[in-house]
Design goal:
Layout: E1 6-12, H1 16-29, E2 32-38, H2 41-52, E3 63-66, H3 75-89, E4 94-99, H4 104-111, E5 116-121, H5 126-137
Parallel strand pairs: 1-2, 1-3, 3-4, 4-5
Helix pairs in contact: 2-3
């Protein structure tokens, strides 16, 4: 069955301006029902963990756009905490690292983490979002 919208997308990023712009771009695609935000990886891990032992896995995001440079728990630390949880989640969450870093070490590091689908350099364009969401919906 082909769905016409992604149920939920999660932005994990401490930059409030980026959060606003990303939400506008995602909303503009009209391919996502809900957008949720976390200012750091620790908040996101706490949310994901809180849903693991409930029947609320539908409340977990389908897609995560993850910044790597954040206070408290950065994107790399989020991924380290997420990977052991992944087998317990019960649904496939697609993770994209989205960063302003053009450092090849960051790109290589992301590509070597199995849970990461791709590394996207900010800002993410509407066309790229439509491409990502269309592929996930097909």
């Amino acid at each position: 069955m082909i769905k016409n919208k992604i149920d939920s997308v999660c932005i994990i990023d401490d930059d409030l301006i980026y959060q606003f712009l990303a939400k506008e771009e995602i909303t503009y695609t009209n391919l996502v029902s809900k957008v949720m935000f976390f200012d750091d990886g620790a908040q996101a891990i706490k949310y994901i963990t809180s849903k693991l032992d409930t029947s609320d896995i539908a409340l977990l995001p389908d897609v995560i756009f993850l910044d790597i440079n954040m206070p408290i728990m950065d994107g790399w630390e989020f991924l380290e905490a997420y990977l052991p949880l992944k087998p317990r989640i019960g649904k496939n969450i697609v993770i994209y690292v989205v960063s302003s870093s053009i450092d090849m070490r960051d790109l290589d590091r992301a590509r070597n983490i199995s849970a990461v689908s791709d590394y996207i350099i900010k800002p993410i364009s509407s066309n790229r979002l439509v491409s990502i969401f269309t592929e996930l919906l097909s």
